[in-house]
């Protein structure tokens, strides 16, 4: 058996998240495992780098598995893609280091959230971006993003994957970019709390729309006081990249 590491991209619209569930729901993991079984995979479960919610997309999800494969890496990539559904694709296949774990060995994850500002719906964009109105104040978005890099207790923006787990996370980078009427939020951290990126986005948007006082954002970081309830919609979020130490790349 050889350990393999792959990079997956998927349109999350029709998935009930990335992880296989007890109920017979369509997930990224279950579709990948179905494709692997068709090429001779006999294990019980693949490993994924990160959990994505229902409706969340990915261009850089990482998975690993062991497989007896007699052909080259490119042939394995072609075989997997031939057996995967149209809303999933393997973009890279390589042999993984011994003992590699896509989740626990990761040093950082990069997410991107896309939104646009206009009063009328846009059927050609709303599958992959959140439409918001009124307009947002870009300077306010930039000032809030500048507060995020560093180590904080982010309990005002999410919950730990396991009950009682730490809510402290280290953010490496956070920024907003404007492209036409679109705003793109990029955030990279060692790990994220459950729903953390979507709550960060929603909080920044309602403040930048001047629906909530700007001072509350700093208070949320310093005193763990929730600014607003709810989440930004899942369709605007994409897992872009998972980083590993040099010896695991």
Description of the molecule:
The protein has 249 residues and is α+β, with helices and mostly antiparallel strands. The protein folds into 2 domains: 2-104, Pseudouridine synthase I, catalytic domain, N-terminal subdomain (Alpha-Beta Plaits); 108-243, Alpha-Beta Plaits, CATH 3.30.70.660. Helices cover 21% and strands 30% of the residues. It contains 5 helices and 10 strands; from the N terminus they run βαββαβββαβββααβ. Strands 1, 2, 3, 4, 5, 6, 7, 8, 9 and 10 form a 10-stranded mixed β-sheet that branches. Strand 2 (47-48) and strand 3 (57-67) form a beta hairpin. The longest helix has 13 residues, at 196-208. The chain is globular. The model has no long low-confidence stretch (mean pLDDT 95).
Write a compact overview of the structure shown.
With 249 residues, the chain is an alpha+beta fold. It is 21% helix and 30% strand. The protein folds into two domains: 2-104, Pseudouridine synthase I, catalytic domain, N-terminal subdomain (Alpha-Beta Plaits); 108-243, Pseudouridine synthase I, catalytic domain, C-terminal subdomain (Alpha-Beta Plaits), CATH 3.30.70.
- Terminal Cα separation, in Å? 20 Å
Please state the CA-atom Rg, rounded to the nearest Å: 19 Å
* Helical content (DSSP H or I, runs of 4+): 10-25%
Class inferred from helices and paired strands: alpha+beta
- Overall shape: globular
Query: Which CATH class of the largest domain applies here?
Result: Alpha Beta
What is the typical, i.e. mean, pLDDT?
A: 95
Second-tier CATH architecture of the largest domain: 2-Layer Sandwich
The biggest beta sheet reads: 10 strands, mixed
Contiguous uncertain segments of 5+ residues: none
Which percent range describes the beta-strand content? 25-35%
Provide the CATH superfamily of the largest domain: Pseudouridine synthase I, catalytic domain, C-terminal subdomain
Number of discrete domains: 2
The fold-level CATH name of the largest domain is Alpha-Beta Plaits
The helix count comes to 5
